[in-house]
Design a protein that fits this description.
mainly alpha; rod-shaped
């Protein structure tokens, strides 16, 4: 083994690159989670509207 550094990336360079990849993945996952939460809220609202509409239909159809 030689004590002189090679021309390739150093261990610190590789660690810095790994940290950058991890931070990028965390940001992408958070962004994806936000989008999923918005879709869930929209679906929940639409389902509430559908259930309310069905409730109205059932109520109007009931002669009591």
């Amino acid at each position: 083994m030689s004590d002189t550094p090679s021309d390739g990336p150093t261990a610190v360079d590789r660690i810095d690159a790994a940290i950058a990849r991890i931070e990028s993945a965390i940001a992408a996952r958070a962004e994806s989670g936000d989008a999923l939460a918005k879709r869930h809220a929209a679906l929940k609202a639409r389902m509430a509207e559908a259930v309310a509409a069905l409730d109205d239909v059932i109520t109007r159809g009931n002669p009591n």
